[in-house]
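Notebook B, p. 112. Complex prediction, attempt 2.
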Amino acid sequence: MMDEDDPMAEIRASFFVECEELLEALQDGLQIMDDGEADDETINIVFRAVHSIKGGAGAFGLEDLVRFAHQFESVLDGVRSGTIEADRNAISVFFQSGDILGDLVRAARDDDVADDSRIQGVMSSLTAMLGADAQEEETEEEVSDFQPMGLSLDLGLDIGDNDAPALPDLPDLDTTPPPATTAVFEDGYTIHFLPDSSLYASGNEPLHLLRLLREMGDLDVTCDTSALPSLSALDEEKSYLSWTIHLTTDEDEDAVRDVFDFVADLCTLTITGPGKPGPGLPPTDAPSSPSTTNEGATADVSFNPPQDSDISPEASVALKPDDVADVKTAPAPVTSSAPAKKPAPSASKSTKPRPTVRVDLERIDRLVNLVGELVINQAMISQSVMETGLQTNSKVSEGLDEFMQLTRDIQDSVMMIRAQPVKSLFQRMSRIVREASSMVGKSVRLKTEGDATEVDKTVIERLADPLTHMIRNAVDHGIETPQDRIAAGKPEEGIVTLSAGHRSGRVIVEISDDGAGINRDRVLQIAIEKGLVPENAQLSDSEIDNLLFMPGFSTASEVSDLSGRGVGMDVVKSAILALGGRVTIQSNPGKGTVFTISLPLTLAVLDGMVIDVSDQTLVVPLSTITETLTLMGPDIRALGPQTNVIKVRDSFVPLLDLGFELGFRSPLESYVGSIALLIAQEDGNHAALVVDSIQDQRQVVIKGLQDTFGRVPGVAAATILGDGKIALILDPVDVVANADGRTRSLKSDLRLAG
Amino acid sequence: MTDTQTTIEPAEIELLTFRVGGQEYAIDIMSVREIRGWSKATPLPHAPDFVRGVINLRGTVLTIVDLADRLGMGRTDTKERNVIIVVHTGVETVGLLVDAVSDILAVNKSELQPPPEMAADNEQAFVSALMIAGERMVRILALTAALPSENTEAA
């Protein structure tokens, strides 16, 4: 992160990526607090996240962000120390603060301007929580906290009077070298604290740590200046000072360690417990190796293993035998001396993150592409081996079977790389719920389930908008007003549940609310008023529910500024259909409504029906086909002079000739006996597409056409079949929407392509 | 393919010449990716006539332009002997369907003559220069003008 060779932009970018992770951790922590399951560590995680964002922001001079993060941090610090109680109201403010922090981070990243009025509002809530007293002073100090500090040179060396602002605050600060004062205190802790340069570079300040210790009990601090070189040799960016601290306190050892929690990997720290003088730390010349630091360190304080093999000179200076030998160690000493280059954002006691690698998405896409090739190639080899007429138990065939298995496994694994947990998406939704509920004056809580479910990254990205819309709908229309809820004997607070899970090769996302359910009478009435259904229509409950997806339908009697924007559920449905998904409604009057979205696991592979039409092989996505049928004479009825409809059960469906619509042939003379695919359109209507034959149903690898030719009407993409030929993947909904509809004209000058 | 001359003078370019509809054309060899035999293309619906469709080029979808049709000389009657020249223009890769590839010529840029302006031929915009090779006249193809993405609407 501090690599000077890197252009600033790259560092910035990585800072913002880190911020996203920290914000996620923050949201997690707040959620746990909100669920009432928080322990001290949760608050620490939250605090750390905010602190790390602040630290990074300081380094980049993002003042707005620093100011807000600082205020937030101060309040969280209050929660940590117990002076501020984290009740529901406070947590709600924290959530808002988290949202604003996210806004500010994004604003800084995109050089945008965040909504100032909201910030001010939350800022004042935070200030109110802090209370007026004593905060002024702290604010002053901590703002200087993230500027890399130089050394205060007036410790023992009489060079002018420069800034050591808090020296007078520390009792008994003398400059005697450590050996004179390392007598074992039977009733206290002996702490040897040697900051790394990186501790200063990351904006930490030993003074604050010492102050925190002072609050715990009587303190006897000795600063060791023996490592300090002469002024001419002094590198002002380096750390030369170490402290030996005797602390007499009632607090336990963990509490003492907690003080150093944030700097644990930025310093060399030895804490010796009260009355338990252990054996001296054996002299060692490899102070930073993990084995050394692990020795006897069974305590629960985590430290990052050295991220960098070059040990900073300070670290080795500090652990020269003659220094270390004096330090008495407790049975469980903790010696963290990792010269980490940055404050580890993920350092946490309970949830150690699994190691991950950040990879450019482009590289993954290339790999996914190549594996797609492999799958196609494997299909081609299989096909040509089959054509040679080899016996199925021959060596070649057996090897080929294994090869097929392997390619499938590889494909699955590669698809997994692109998969991401839906957690980040769900977290965004919890913000939508907060904002939406406060806007309509309802008390709504979002419960999420299965947020570790992994879905293709593209699916997640493209799901965000429809999901936002549905969540808003659930809050606005689904959940009743608090009065109505109480009248109905429900708790005042409504619950919207967002869950995700895998089911038979697809991802199921459910949005459910415990509201009043769909008012079917009202839905039907509106649909009739708007002329969407005939007045005397007899519709089943589910048919009425599905009216919500019709274009131009909106139930809210008054248009709220939240979800009644003329953009209806039809947009949601088409967005989900575009992802190869389906959406269904289930409503239970008085109990609530459940929207179920079923999505393919990936956008790189598609379940398709391979069909033939006028000598061309095409793939139709299975998700768009509701049924296939063979046309019987009496079912085909003439509509206009050139068009036909077919009778499917009790409704009439336009008949379209796929070959004609794609320009491959003229309309046939008769369609009796032809095979037709019944295509479901976004508005719930159907259309029948005539094809010549249906070959197969199989998974195909999707290849984009855009790169080579741009958008082709009626065609979604292409794929490569087992024989190496390219087959186009149809976008049947687009075909139907742009259909000409002629199925009877006999004369046509259309030329057969190919 | 470039073995004939390893060091290229700045003023000298190498041209790949090929026959289209009985005429001789050439393109800068640096834009040629590969030359392959004709394989049946999958037609694209609603595409201009000169776009013969797409083929599978080792996993990528490659658009095939019938160059004769594009140059106004009528549709190529595809046979086994036809050749696809895969060219890359910096933004896209396209296959050009031609009759046959003839030769590789190293020519000095000064030998290239600007084409005379003649309004009657609408194919003329596709020729960026002319040159003499022996007794023959070789037309230098203006590649970007012949490719579908820029001229889809015009066609």
